[in-house]
Amino acid sequence: MRLTNKMRRSLVALGAAGLLTASIAGPVLAMDSTETETETETPAHEERFAERQAAFAKALAEELGLPEEQVQEALTTVREDLAEQWRAERQAAAKERLDAAVASGELTEEQADALREAAEVIREVAGDRDSGPPFGGLGGFRGPGGFRGFFGPHR
Fold it and tell me: Left, alpha or beta for 48 (phi > 0: left; psi -120 to 50: alpha)?
């Protein structure tokens, strides 16, 4: 039997659809719906961070000759201030990229508004986890700022 071009394209499309379905459904079916990986790892990570932060504050206090509580308070204040600064910078950069995409015609104003709304929901859900450089810090997800090319190249 000889396959026509139309039959070949149909078979290729069917194969690609099957591969796509398997690549999406496989991981979803493999997930346990009652417990996610982040639920089990987050407390341990937070405990390790708190232990390291306390050890750092203690060593810094000894080095500077200051009370440990004063150093811990200063570190907490600086961390919170930087987190707010980074959050504001990320929001401004995202707004600038969306505005540029609307101006160039890549997005409509409605699409940009939908993306802004989705970003707001993500910020609400992330809560206090949204407190540092994006995507794990500098160098994460292919370089400073992460997700290079997601909303266009980072400046």
Answer: alpha
pTM, 2 dp: 0.47
DSSP for 7-76, please give it.
Answer: HHHHHHHHHHHHHHHHHHHHHHHHS-TT--HHHHHHHHHHHHHHHHHHHHHHHHHHHHT--HHHHHHHHH
Copy the structure tokens of residue 77: 């204040």
CA distance 7 to 5: 5
Per-residue pLDDT of 108-125, as tens digits, reads 999 999 988 888 888 788
Residue from 148, 149, 145, 152 nearest 101 by CA: 152
